[in-house]
Amino acid sequence: MSNLKQIIRHRDNGMALQTISKTLGIARNTVKKYLQLVDSKGFTYGELLCKSDEQLDALLNDPVQKSEQRYQDLQSFFPFMESELKRTGVNRWVLWGEYRQKHPDGYSYSQFCDNYRQWRIGLSASMRIEHSAGDKLYIDFTGDRLLPCLLSINNCFI
Questions:
Q1: In sequence order, which residues have a C-beta less than 8 Å from that of residue 155 and are 6 or more positions away?
Q2: Which region, left, alpha or beta, applies to residue 143 given φ > 0 means left and ψ of -120 to 50 means alpha?
Q3: Other Cβ atoms closer than 10 A to 17
Q4: Domain boundaries, the chain
Q5: pLDDT > 90: what percent of the chain?
Q6: Using one digit for the tens of pLDDT, what is the confidence trace for 45-96?
């Protein structure tokens, strides 16, 4: 028997949330969330107890689909966010505000930033180069040009 069905059975027998959570070894807030979900759908406990576990999952599985859709909406916002962050005066807080205007039930700021950070990690490219010491010289040419005094060792003070 699934935990959901056990929660419904215990609640139908008049058991308190705290007692159900201790009996099943589930957090009280999880029990509360499932019971609120059942109440929001408008089903009675007796109706749900007659159904199989698969039927219960099908009836009450909307929050998982909703959270997946919410995550997909967030992921689709990140490429836009990446380009906007390069502009002057734009920061994550401003972009989070725009995101919340489009998706009022979207992620909080901390989760928004954490998911963005995880997304950025997935974009980073790196390569490991194995070589013998002193065999080759690798120079990174990014950034500003070298100053003329650095080109000549005799003219520089180190």
A1: 148, 149
A2: left
A3: 16
A4: 3-60, 64-123
A5: 23
A6: 887 788 787 777 777 665 545 678 888 889 999 999 999 999 988 999 999 9
User: Of residues 90 and 141, which shows the higher confidence score?
Assistant: 90
Name the band, by pLDDT with cuts 50, 70 and 90, for residue 126. confident
Place of tokens 């490991």: 128
3-state per-residue secondary structure call for the chain? CCHHHHHHHHHHCCCCHHHHHHHHCCCHHHHHHHHHHHHHHCCCHHHHHCCCHHHHHHHCCHHHHHHHHHHHHHHHHHHHHHHHCCCCCCCHHHHHHHHHHHCCCCCCHHHHHHHHHHHHHHHCCCCCCCCCCCCCCCCCCCCCCCCHHHHCHHHCCC
Q: What does the block give as tokens for 24? A: 């099943």
